[in-house]
Amino acid sequence: MTDALRFRQVAPEVFYAEDSFAVAGQEAVELLKRVAPASPRKRCRICFHPDQQAAAQEMLIAMHGSSYVRPHRHFGKTETLTVLEGQATALLFEEQGTVRERLPMGPYGTPRAFFYRMPEGIFHTLSFESEWLIYLETTTGPFDPAKSEAADWAPPESDPTAGVAYLGQLEASMDVGHASTSRG
Questions:
Q1: In Å, what is the CA distance from 51 to each residue of 10, 20, 36, 99?
Q2: Across the chain, where does the E strand assignment appear?
Q3: CB of 182 closer than 8 Å to CB of 102
Q4: Per-residue pLDDT tens for 49-66?
Q5: Domains of the chain from N-terminus onward
Q6: pTM for this one?
Q7: Is the dihedral of CA 109, 7, 71, 54 positive or negative?
C-alpha cells in the first residue's frame, strides 16, 4: 500500500493519517501539492495525530508560494517548524507590528536555518520565497483556536492578495532600511 492511501481527507485542506504508526514519503508530499492549489488558502496538511484533542499535534504541511499566513501568536504552547523543501523567511514581530527579527529558512544542507522553536506569545508568520514550502510542524494539543490570536494590524487571511502584498512591502523595507535583525 502506498503512503497516500493511508490518509483520509476531512476538509478541503486537511488529511489525517489512518494508522497510529504513520508513514509519509514522497507520495505524501505529492498528494499535498496536488490538493493545495485547489484549496481556498492554497495549502494542505496531513495530521499524524489521531484528532484535535491529541496532546501532541504533528503535521506535514505544504504551502503554495501564493499563500498567506496572517501574523499570529499562540498562548500556552510552543510550535516547532522543520523545513523539508523550499524557502521562506520567518518574520517575528513586536506587539504593534514592527518586524523585530527575520530568519531565512530552507532545508538542511543550505546556508539557511532549517528549524525553529517558536515560544508562546510572539507574533510570527512566513513570507514564502519558492513555489512550495514543505515543512513539519509540531505543537501541543488539544487544538483550541482561542489559544491563538491573529494580529489586528495585518490583513486577514480572507484577503491573501493584500496579505502577500503586505509581506512583500515589509520585506522590501527591510532590504532597504535594514529594519530588523537577521539570522542566517
A1: 11, 11, 21, 34
A2: 7-11, 14-17, 43-47, 56-64, 72-74, 79-85, 88-93, 99-105, 115-118, 123-128, 132-140, 148-150, 181-182
A3: yes
A4: 988 989 899 999 999 999
A5: 3-182 (2.60.120.10)
A6: 0.90
A7: negative
